[in-house]
């Protein structure tokens, strides 16, 4: 159809227009929160670049103190959103394509370098136990079925499917949006194969980049960390154990890698929304981009305030 999600489904079948609406609502729900986390990543990158880490970033209260601040998370969120808006505002060729040609190869090289470095790590803890990155690689790759039950297996499968769906942007309208820009003679099957291949390779390397390092310095206890706790609490502690010079260098490379990945993803999410506005209301790109940016900014500020000013705990009976 060469259309955005909000109009593409209706062209295929008149009664399928509601599916396109859902494909537009989902990225609008994701983008504000995603951009808020992007701001967290920039904060950590800045901390390592300015020499405030690893000592500061590995401190127990660093992450909590940051997100509970009513102003600072908003500042970093706005910076990240502005970077995303700038790329989308420039258009598909001058913005997204140009950024991808530069950032994607750099991102892949950084991931490979950190992954290889993780495998060379060796650490002896206070109890005299020595762990290596290669042992961590074994922990990463060899399944451990000890204590496995049906409910735990279901949780693992569900988590893996959730990660898979999010990774390839299922129900976000991103693939439909990007697909609308390709030439008519493009081999879609070949594109799908390339996406599957590179998505799997990068996901595998990302795990190889993180798991061996965490295991080397924190043992199996470190494997329990996930999500924000893993990225913003556990990993800075790992970098701190590497020493000031090496830890700071690895911290810079790691959060630069994550920042690149986050920016390319947020650009794709915003582009899906901008494309929907352009096709539905026949408006120009610049105006549609600014509208999406303003709405995202308002909701994103509420997300940032949700960890401090607007934070509350619900006590269930």
Structure overview:
The chain has a two-stranded antiparallel sheet. By secondary structure, the protein is mostly helical. The protein has helices at 5-12, 17-49, 62-67, 72-90, 92-119, 133-141, 150-167, 174-179, 188-218, 227-241, 244-281, 285-305, and strands at 122-124, 130-132. A hairpin with a 5-residue loop joins strand 1 (122-124) and strand 2 (130-132). Helix 2 runs antiparallel to helix 11 (244-281), helix 5 (92-119) packs parallel to helix 9 and helix 5 (92-119) packs antiparallel against helix 11 (244-281). The termini are far apart.
Q: What's a concise summary of this model?
A:
The protein is an all-alpha fold. The protein is 73% helix and 2% strand. It has helices spanning 5-12, 17-49, 62-67, 72-90, 92-119, 133-141, 150-167, 174-179, 188-218, 227-241, 244-281, 285-305, and strands at 122-124, 130-132.
SSE blueprint:
Elements: H1 5-12, H2 17-49, H3 62-67, H4 72-90, H5 92-119, E1 122-124, E2 130-132, H6 133-141, H7 150-167, H8 174-179, H9 188-218, H10 227-241, H11 244-281, H12 285-305
Antiparallel strand pairs: 1-2
Helix pairs in contact: 1-2, 2-4, 2-11, 2-12, 4-5, 4-11, 4-12, 5-9, 5-11, 6-9, 9-10, 10-11, 11-12
Mean of residue pLDDT values? 92
The coarse overall form would be globular
Give, in order, the helices and strands: HHHHHEEHHHHHHH
Major sheet characteristics:
2 strands, antiparallel
The helix-and-strand class reads: mainly alpha
- As a percent range, the share of strand residues is under 5%
Widest beta sheet: strand line-up: 1-2
Span between N and C termini?
Answer: 52 Å
Helix content: over 70%
């Amino acid at each position: 159809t060469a259309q955005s999600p909000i109009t593409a489904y209706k062209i295929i079948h008149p009664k399928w227009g509601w599916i396109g609406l859902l494909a537009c609502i989902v990225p609008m729900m994701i983008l504000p929160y995603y951009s808020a986390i992007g701001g967290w990543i920039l904060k950590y990158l800045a901390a390592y670049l300015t020499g405030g880490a690893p000592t500061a970033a590995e401190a127990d209260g660093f992450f909590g103190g940051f997100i509970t601040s009513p102003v600072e998370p908003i500042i970093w969120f706005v910076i990240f959103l502005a970077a995303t808006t700038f790329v989308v505002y420039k258009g598909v060729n001058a913005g997204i394509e140009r950024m991808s040609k530069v950032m994607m190869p750099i991102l892949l090289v950084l991931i490979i370098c950190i992954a290889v470095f993780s495998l060379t790590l060796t650490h002896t803890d206070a109890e005299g136990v020595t762990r290596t990155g290669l042992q961590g690689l074994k922990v990463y790759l060899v399944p451990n079925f000890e204590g496995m039950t049906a409910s735990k297996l279901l949780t693992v499968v569900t988590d893996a499917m959730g990660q898979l769906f999010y990774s390839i942007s299922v129900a976000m309208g991103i693939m439909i949006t990007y697909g609308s820009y390709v030439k008519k003679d493009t081999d879609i099957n070949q594109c799908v194969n390339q996406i599957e291949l590179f998505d799997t390779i990068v996901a595998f390397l990302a795990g190889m980049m993180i798991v061996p390092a965490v295991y080397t310095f924190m043992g199996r206890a470190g494997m329990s960390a996930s999500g924000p706790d893993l990225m913003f609490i556990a990993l800075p502690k790992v970098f701190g154990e590497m020493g000031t010079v090496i830890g700071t260098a690895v911290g810079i490379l790691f959060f630069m890698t994550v920042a690149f990945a986050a920016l390319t993803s947020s650009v794709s999410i915003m582009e899906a929304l901008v494309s929907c506005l352009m096709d539905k209301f026949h408006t120009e790109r610049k105006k549609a981009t600014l509208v999406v940016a303003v709405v995202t900014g308002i909701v994103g500020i509420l997300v940032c305030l949700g960890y401090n000013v607007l934070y509350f705990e619900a006590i269930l009976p």
